[in-house]
Amino acid sequence: MFLLYLFAASASATPIVQLKLLVITTGSAEQDQGLDLIDDMLDEMGVPYDVLDATQTTLTTDLLVTNSQGNYNGIILTDSSLYNWGTGSVNGSAFTLAEWKILHAYERDYQVRESVLSGYPMSGEYFRVTYDLDYGMDMSSMAAGFSFTGVWQLTNNNDIFEYVNQTHNLPITDYTITTHPNFDPDGPVVTPLLTDKTSGKIMVSKLVYADGREVLYSSIANAWYLLYSQVLNYEFLNFATQGVFIGSRYIYLAAHIDDVFIHDELWDPETNTTTGEKRYRNSAHDIDNIVSANSQFTDQYTNVNSFKLDLAFNGVGAAQASPSPVSLISTTALSINSVDQDSNQTDGNKINVGTSSSMRERGLLQFELPDEISNNAATATLKLTTKKVAGGTEESTGSICLMTETWTNEATWNARNTVNAWLSSGGSFDPNYCIAYTVNRNRIKLNITSLINHWRTTNLPTFDLLIMADSGTLIKVFNSEANKERKHPNLKISFAASEPLTDAIVTNRDEFRFLNHTFTHRDMYKSSGATYDIAFQEINDNIGVWQRLGFPEFTAEIQTLVTGNHSGLEDSEGSNQASSISVDYPEGRNPALFESMMDLGIRYMASDISRPNQDIPSYVPETDILLLPRYPTSLFYNVTTPEELTDEYNYIFYERHIEAGDNPCTISGAICQPRSYSEILAAEAQTTFRHMLTFRPWPHYFHATNLHDYGNGNSLQYDWLYAVTDYFNQLLNLPIINMDYYSIGVMVEEKLAAQKANLRGTWDRNNNTVSLIADDAIKGRITGIAGGDFYGGQHLITTDIDSLGRTFIVDQANE
Ligand SMILES: [Zn+2]
Q: Is the pLDDT of residue 576 over 60?
């Protein structure tokens, strides 16, 4: 029985082929946009391949076969005729008839498939004789254009384009030839896969020839910059290799939220600037809201059902364990009055506070509360020293109120600074946060704990108080110019152990993942003076907060780091803006930072993919720290609402060019017309979709401001996630993998190691096995063998392979 089997197998044996792809082109990646499209994907997935430039190299059987083994298990042609009228052209093809016949004989004898990325549908007798080509189309029905609506025809083709959403049309937006099949009995059997909605003509089809050859043929121009090409791209590989190849693809999406716990400055739509006068720190409500937004999000989309945000936090903003009490002196005090409405009284060591029938005088006090303590006040006591005024009453009374706008030394009755009027003249304040005072023996002593704790929710940069006398009273209040320190306006605060935002995040900590974004968000540029000690402390203090607050996955995730502004890689002289004095990575990196990182066991560091030399995963020189790029988005760090975002977006991409006298339509990266919020989200969704279709695992980064509940539970962050996921699901039918940063780092390191180890293999179709071997022990990623993940209708496995080799059972999972 065994002998009989062997005999039968060898009689009809299918030759063994290597697991390697051959891409036949009409030039280099710069010259051949089809190669430019496919090689990025193959590199990212780790698929072994050779490129044969048909204009330079003659195809011979020796290139295809070694010792009767096939050297390739799949062929990709970037153009149907290898269109070429340059050097080596044969009737407009880069191949001679003999070369075409060698290729087709190999495909037939070694049972190897071919994918054709684009090109003319050469069909019928003439092309068969001249090129040995026949794409089975009725050339008299050809129509070419630049805009088609692609309709999927996949009902009986479960293993082709299994990953697309076939119920949704695919817009085709570049040069395409559409045709009907010609039903020529001497040509291939044509199965349409993607047709034009209007004419019903074919754009992508599967061809089966009488000799058994199988071709996936697209007559659509494909290039890396075309969105639909990114959709089609995977099947060109998958079809050609029959779904069995080294390498695998997943779709990734992760959202890093930077600056958690601290304030970020806000965009001011009035001035088109970010001044720091407006700022935002999340409320506890934002966090509760985001937790429920995420559970709605993951409930709604089954392909993102384990999605979590990664919070990159700055521990300085979290509640401290037991902050020491503070005693503060008012930094500024002045008096404004209703008679002389355009000046103030700041001179001398006292300010006037009084109310009479002819004049109101009010005092303004400013305290700089320590930004590094976010804990609630347990008790806060304000002490003012007053001086009795001739004719004044002993029992002076009034109120001290929390102001709702900041002001400067130039504040007057009418205006809070030299530019802006008060929202209400005489100083803007919140009448719900006023506390009555009574002067007692030239002293005002007031418990203002509730004002401080409310102030923390307002995001105002300074703590400002308005002193208003009751009618008929007049006092003078000593300011900090008073010669005796005990007379200075004084605020003593002792702190509670908690504050609402920290409590909310700690309560919900298992709903998130966490990342170290350094303790105070200090710049790590060498030029900003970030020494070893400073860097060590910034990172280590944040590690301490991680442990104290009990955030999850400490051991793994603490090995990752996101520096403030991604600083420390290039050197921008402390500036976040590109400028002539900046030194790019790696020359501009801060070696002291990396020394401290290595001493703290950090292995993965975030870089900004948009900055020079930071767009690929690479080891920082002289370290074993791997850079993991992240994508910026148009959800800027300084916006909390659609209004702010839309204003800033249109200013950056449109208005400022108009203001500069330029036409934005002629400027790269600018837009011709301002966009609405929904148009911005649509553009973001497309951009993000393109990122996802590169199969790269890089996260997108955002800021805590984007988590703000701007109304009815909505946030910029989840608007973005819904827009992206909706767009993705319209076109594709695949799970979206949401990985933590540490695991991304481990995976990328594994891929880099595999690249170096020359992972290779052969496919024995008779035994239905694949044998793999590598120069070193690595994690190999393979598609189409039994076990592993079931993803997009295929088996994807990640497994140990070394120089001894291993053999696996093939499972193409075809229905
Ligand atoms: Zn940051």
A: no
Quick one: 539 and 654 in the same domain?
no
Tell me the average pLDDT of the chain. 94
> Within a domain: residue 151?
yes
Alpha helices in 159-273 (DSSP H): 227-240
CA distance 93 to 73: 24
The owner of tokens 């739509």 is 269
Encoded amino acid at 313, one letter: F
pLDDT classification of 51: cutoffs 50, 70, 90: very high
pLDDT at 11: 45
Q: For residue 652, give every residue at least 6 positions away whose Cβ sits within 8 Å of its Cβ, in sequence order, or none.
A: none
Both 441 and 545 in one domain: the answer is no
Residue 711, domain member (yes or no): no
Residues 99 and 113 in one domain: yes
Cβ atoms of 699 and 256 closer than 8 Å = yes
Query: Distance between CA atoms of 465 and 366, rounded to whole angstroms?
Result: 6
Is the pLDDT reported for residue 120 higher than 90?
Answer: yes
DSSP bridge pairs for 137: 181
Q: How far is the CA of 521 from the centre of ligand 1 (A)?
A: 6
Q: How far, in Å, from the CA of 702 to the mean position of ligand 1?
A: 9
| Residue 740 three-state SS | coil
H/E segment holding residue 107: helix 97-109
How far apart are the C-alpha atoms of 736 and 156, rounded to whole Å? 26
CA of 603 to the centre of ligand 1 (A): 19
Centre of ligand 1 from the C-alpha of residue 263, in Å: 10
Which residues, at least 6 apart from 34, have a Cβ–Cβ distance to it below 8 Å? Answer: 25, 78, 79, 117, 118, 222, 223
Q: Which two tokens stand for residue 343?
A: 């000046």
Distance of CA 478 to the CA centre of its chain: 53
**What is the pLDDT at residue 70?**
98
CA dihedral 29, 31, 37, 39 (to 10 degrees): -20
- Asked whether the beta carbons of 597 and 625 are under 8 A apart, the reply is yes
Res 603: pLDDT: 98
Boundary (domain end) residue, out of 242, 272, 303: 242
Per-residue pLDDT tens over the stretch 504-522: 999 999 999 999 999 999 9
Residue 143 has pLDDT above 90, yes or no: yes
Cα 328-334-337 angle, rounded to 5 deg:
145
**Token digits of residue 145:** 């254009």
CA of 258 to the centre of ligand 1 (A): 5
Distance from C-alpha of 700 to C-alpha of 628, rounded to nearest angstrom: 11
User: What's the CATH code of the domain at 305?
Assistant: 3.20.20
CA of 612 to the centre of ligand 1 (A): 19
CB-based contacts of 52: which residues, under 8 Å, 6+ apart?
A: 22, 23, 24, 25, 59, 63
Residue 318 CA to ligand 1 centre (angstroms): 15
DSSP 15: P
Q: What is the pLDDT of residue 185?
A: 95
∠ CA(611), CA(615), CA(619), 5° rounding? 110
Q: Whole-angstrom Cα distance, residue 412 to residue 147? A: 63
Tokens representing residue 133 in the block? 């080509």
R_g over Cα of the chain = 34
Domains: count for the chain: 5
At 146, give phi and psi (nearest 5°). -120, 5
User: Separation of 541 CA from ligand 1 center, angstroms?
Assistant: 16
**Cα–Cα distances in Å, from 685 out to 128, 578, 647, 693, 714?**
45, 26, 19, 12, 17
**Residue 186's closest CA among 148, 233, 133, 140?**
133
φ and ψ of 634, to 5 deg: -90, 5
pLDDT of 209 strictly over 80: yes
Q: Which of 455, 478, 497 is the last residue of a domain?
A: 497
Q: How many CA atoms are closer than 13 Å to the CA of 700, on its beta-carbon side?
A: 25
Cα(688) to centroid(ligand 1), Å: 21
| Domain that includes residue 430, residue range | 326-497
Amino acid at 514: F
